[in-house]
Amino acid sequence: MDILIKSFNRPYYLDRCIQSIVLNSLNSDYKIVILDDGTPQKYLNKLLDKYPEIKILKSDLYDEKSNAIANDIQNINSKIPIDLWISSAKNASNYFLLIEDDFWFTKSFNLKKFRLNLETDKIKMLKLCWLGNSKLLPEKTVSNNNLYSIYSPNLYTENPYLFNLIFRIDRFKIRKILTILKFYSEERFLKYYTIYATSGAVFKKKYFLNLWKNHKNSIDEGLQLLNAVKFINKKKKSSNFGFSNNELMKTGFLSSASNQNKAFKNIAIDMFAFNKIINEAWFNNDFDAMVNYPNDLNSEKIEELLIKSNNPLAQVSEWKKWVQAFKNQYISFGCKID
What we know:
Elements: E1 2-7, H1 11-24, E2 31-36, H2 41-50, E3 55-58, H3 62-70, H4 82-90, E4 95-100, E5 103-105, H5 111-121, E6 123-127, E7 143-144, E8 148-151, H6 160-168, H7 174-180, H8 186-190, E9 201-204, H9 205-211, H10 221-234, E10 240-244, E11 249-251, H11 271-283, H12 299-309, H13 316-331
Parallel strand pairs: 1-2, 1-4, 2-3, 6-10
Antiparallel strand pairs: 4-9, 5-11, 6-9, 7-8, 8-10
């Protein structure tokens, strides 16, 4: 099975991610493919020296973005490398694992066993990570084995037109009216994430590619959820999904790959400046990404590096406020964060 890892400018997290795969995999029946969007080459070279078995694919904007990062250019192209993700999925194994660079395994796993069972059970997507949030899992399961539980979607509506009206359109106070009439609720909406994930899941190739239909070169989760509903509406009898019996992964909350969509009021920190400090420390063997594993990175060491750098764009006090605000976004809808 292929493991596709989305990567951008956080080699320290990527190092931890790959190490966790090597440490926890019970067999070698996998291929790691890094889908990189701009991590400077010297960092990638270090990873290739450490893990010669990995394959690195680069986005069309890799040169532009990596040069901007290396030269501290502030206005970095924010285009998302969707074409790279889709082309990589098309060339991947029939079932593949998709994760971000800041994900890491915390428990042992056997992808060969997963693959064989997923094929037999005709699973479209298998969640391995849900941040302890039961709202992202189904209320009822159909069956289970020693690897995962199987479920069929239990959604408020599987009609694409009704889904679009109730859960996707948010104009002209429609959402407010539908909430008052008790058609829309956040709890009902979150149930649609039992058939969708951005990462931390094993996908059947056909299902993943279906999610990205009509993407128009932008990430639109509402559209992807609509595509998932359309798929299920057509294949009601064969739409099985699953989640691992134990949550196998964690994800990081101490940094972001960029400043996009991560700005908080009255918090002034530049994540590119922050990442450069940690990237360089990691590159020079002054930051071990596995310290504090299986929990998140060593925050005390990060504080030490930020104090030593004394970069006005990445002060410790602002970083701490940013981390708490970032975590609160997830805690607010039921996720459990260390």
